[in-house]
Amino acid sequence: MDLGIKGKLAIVCASSRGLGLGCARALAANGVHLVMNGTNLARLESVAGDIAKEYNVIVLACAADITTESGRARVLEAADGKADILINNAGGPPPGDFRDWGREAWLDALNANMLTPIEMMKAVIDPMIARKFGRIVNITSGSVKNPIPLLGLSNGARAGLTGFVAGLSRQVAEHNVTINNLLPGQFNTDRINALFEARAAAEGMSADDIRAKAEAANPCRRLGEADEFGSLCAFMCSAQAGYLVGQNLLLDGGAFNANP
Q1: How far apart are CA 13 and CA 178, in angstroms?
Q2: Partners of 138 in the beta sheet?
Q3: pLDDT, tens only, 28-41
Q4: Which domain, by its residues, includes 194?
């Protein structure tokens, strides 16, 4: 299927690895030019160069912390007001016990996983409305639908973003600007490895044993791969997805069993 987005420009936040990289690759495979973001300049430039060469698209590498005002400014400057697609993504807050989290921990989580994507949306949405095309996908978490006890900071911050998007998405849909959330379950990323290690330490098991249990518990008997996550993200950004508005799409191999 031709997704109808060849030649458009996408900002993909936190895209030097993991799910963000999967999204960047899938968009580039469909002819989308990219502004890629990450904090590790060497790794970012390496993957950006590989994508540009493989898919023959323009890729701008912007090393910056997207959760800071200056970092967002640098990424937005690289896009020069021409972003047709925005993929919001940032690392999740650490796991732990809510008794150990002070005000600063909560503010950090809210800044990274709620306020930062809102600021990015605010920056790009009016030019999208003027061009009568815009696709925004927020990478949140399966914990929005199925809260994870050890991830209370993430549960709270991402639920706040979800509520905000539910309102805003319906205000801009008439302009062919869509906003949706893509909720990952357990994928083969550095993030899941860190969570497995934290859980292993808490339960006195090995991380490999925790991984094996997670794989066995999933109906697909495996974890997800970043490229298949990226493929769904690319469709959500397609010309054909203009009627997909304010949704929370859970991609978790069927792990969460509930009626819609």
Answers
A1: 18
A2: 88, 181
A3: 999 999 999 999 99
A4: 187-223
Residue 260 pLDDT class (50, 70, 90 cuts) = low
Identify whether residues 37 and 19 lie together within a single domain. yes
Assign 254 to helix, strand or coil: coil
8 Å CB contact between 24 and 37: no
Write down the residue that tokens 């898919």 correspond to: 55
pTM for the predicted model, two decimal places? 0.94
3-state secondary structure of 138: strand
Radius of gyration of the CA atoms of the chain, in A: 18
Beta-carbon contacts of residue 25 (< 8 Å; ≥ 6 apart):
51, 55, 227, 230
Same domain, 87 and 36: yes
Q: 165-194 burial by CB neighbour count: b if 16+ within 10 A, else e? A: beebbeebbebebbbbbbbbbbbbbebbee
